[in-house]
Structures are given as structure tokens and as C-alpha cells.
Amino acid sequence: MSTRLGGEFCLVCGADPPLFGDRMCEPCLRARTVLAKVPENVPWVRCARCGIVEIDGKWENTTEDEVWDELLHRNLVVHERAEDIQLGMEPVKVSDRHTLLHIQLEGVIDDLLFQEEHTMRARMANGVCLTCTRRAGNYFEATVQLRSSARRLSEDEFKRLRATLDDVLEKLSDDPMFFITTEGPVTGGYDVVLGSKGLARAWGRHLISEYGGMVIETNSTVGRKDGVDVTRLTLLYRKPGYEIGDVVQWRHHMWRPSAWTKEGAIMERIDRRERTGASWRDLEQAKVLAQRHEFIEVDFINEDATAGEFLDPNTWEMSLVRLPFEHIPGRKGLLIRQDEEWIALPHMAIDTPEQVED
């Protein structure tokens, strides 16, 4: 007991100063103060189908180490006056479901250093995330229909279009609703059924930026939930079946697209000097007559101002063709075969091979 009348003393044992906190000496303060409280057992949930983890009601793709950190920070209750907190943790797996988290804790309370050790058992329970639940029930929000205009695309071309979806998924955020419900070839194209309208629209924008064409969106109401209409999206993407320099039948004449624009293409007429812009909708009725890899390049043996004579590669006989309006004497001709007749094409920039400098 303090011998000095009116002097300070520990409220618990009466010891002389120094006093800390609520006027207690160091031994009494340490005996009655806990730096942190940690529950003995904490549950966490992992999806039994895909392995993602539920954290604060949200399913996330995360590692076990991140799970332990999240459980510790969510369940650790530190003394309100503690400062300079230092944490250390070592997980020890006991079984497939149980992991012991050995925690070392250090902090300062009222200028006194406290050090504690705790053990927390993380108990894993199996669950099923919303994504897997919806996948199992064939849930979907959008259907993307891959189609073409002007000609039917080959199987390899549809595969290249479908592969762009994987590129889009890699670049987008890790949203659990970005999944594919079903997919496969259909008459005239390829359909992909998706769990997210946002993913469908992002893919549509990517297809247009890569291949041109147009997208048509259709929304249909399939019910109501919590007073709100539930809709599904059908996104029809039409890829032009032609590339720059191909020959297409459009508006009863032959044309060659020379450049893409934001809304369509620049078209150049074959039989005369005419150039015009066309929207994708305008070009819906265009028909591909020949692709560039099908063109035949020939040397003219004889030529005048209007016609050129060449050796037919099919019959090895001399044939005559009308020369294009911009023909330069001595230049090779680009020919296509249409309705049993040879047609010479005016040259475009894409037809001229790049000059390689020494």
C-alpha cells in the first residue's frame, strides 16, 4: 500500500506508481487485458463444383492463403487502445476440411508491449455457387448468333469467330456470370448461349472491330421477378462474307470493296470509274462472286486500247478479254471466270505487291 497520504496507487492491488490505463499497475493491467480476441472455430464455404470461395456473401476465385488472411481480418478483434499491431500466421492443414491457423500477435497498449499467441480452426463447408447453380439449371441471359452475309462461311471461319470469345473473356473482369451455357453449329451459322448480357454485348463490339459487319439486338420478356421484367437478349452478328478486294454482285453490277468504314464499306465498280459508300444494311443483299485468292493473273500476248489476248490456263488456247478502264499497257491482267466468260478487273492498291527495298 502507498505510504504517502493522497498519493496515487493501483486500484486493484494498491501498488505504487507507475500506473497504466485505468489506474492499474503493470501486473494488474496485464492480468486483466487481452490484446486480441480470436474465435476457436470459423467456418468458410467453397463451391463443391468449381472451387471458388464465398467471402462476405460474394463468390470469388481466390487462393487458400488469401482465404486465411480474409478469415483472420474478419474475425480478429483487437483491443480498442492497441497500437503498432504486428501479425504473423502459419496455417497447418489437419484434414481436407480443417486447417489450424497459428497466430502470433504483437501490439502496444498504454505504452506497454503485449505479445500473444492464438489458434483458430478454419472449418470448410461445401456449397454451390450461384454460377454453378445456374449452369446446372441451363440458365442463360443472352444468345449470340454468328451468321454471314453475301456467302456461307466455312467451318474454319466460324471457328476463328468463336475463338475471339476466349480473347474477350481473358480481357474482361473475373465475373462469375461470364460463362457459356451451350454452344454449337446450327443451320447457316453458329450459336453461343451465354450467362451474361454484358458478355454478349462486349463480344459483339469486339467482332465488329475485328471483322466489320453489323449487330442486331432483340430483347424478349420471359417473366417477372420482384416486380421487374426478366428479359433475354438475342444478338445477331452478321460478318461480311467478303474481304477487301473481293468481287461481289451488288445492285445488279459487279463491285470490289476497297476499304472498310465505321458503318460499312467503300465500293468500286468494275466496269467503269465509279466509287460509292455503302452501309452494312445496304450490302446485305450483296453476293460474293470471287475471292482474291481465286483471281487469275495473266500476261497479255497481244493487246490494244480495248481488248487483250492471253493464253487460257484452263484450255491452253488463246482467249480474248475486254480490258478494264484503267488498264496500263504491259501490265498483267487480273481475271475472274463468270458465266463462262472471262472478266478483267481494274487494279486496286491491294493488288499491287509491296516493293521491297534493298
Describe the protein:
This protein has 358 residues and is α+β, with helices and mostly antiparallel strands. The protein has 4 domains: 1-32, no CATH class; 36-130, no CATH class; 138-240; 247-351, no CATH class. It is built from 5 helices and 24 strands. It is elongated. The termini are far apart.
Number of strands: 24
SS strand fraction: 35-45%
Let me know the largest β-sheet. 6 strands, mixed
Number of domains: 4
Mean pLDDT metric:
88
Radius of gyration, in Å, reads 38 Å
User: Helical content, roughly?
Assistant: 10-25%
Task: Identify low-pLDDT runs.
Answer: 354-358
Bulk shape: elongated
User: What count of helical segments does DSSP give?
Assistant: 5
Output the structural class. Answer: alpha+beta
Q: Please give the order of strands in the largest beta sheet.
A: 4-3-2-8-7-6
Query: How would you spell out the order of helices and strands?
Result: HEEEEHEEEEHEHEEHEEEEEEEEEEEEE
| Termini separation | 102 Å
Keywords:
single chain; 5-stranded mixed sheet; 43% strand; 358 residues; 5 helices; alpha+beta; disordered C terminus; 6-stranded mixed sheet; 24 strands
Short description:
The protein is of the alpha+beta class and 358 residues long.
Can you lay out the helices and strands and say which pair or pack?
Blueprint: H1 26-32, E1 36-37, E2 41-47, E3 53-55, E4 58-60, H2 64-75, E5 77-78, E6 83-93, E7 98-109, E8 112-127, H3 130-136, E9 142-149, H4 155-171, E10 180-186, E11 189-194, H5 197-211, E12 214-225, E13 228-240, E14 247-250, E15 253-260, E16 264-269, E17 275-279, E18 287-290, E19 296-298, E20 302-303, E21 307-311, E22 318-322, E23 333-338, E24 341-345
Parallel strand pairs: 2-8, 9-13
Antiparallel strand pairs: 1-5, 2-3, 3-4, 6-7, 7-8, 9-11, 10-11, 12-13, 14-15, 14-18, 15-16, 16-17, 19-23, 20-21, 21-22, 23-24
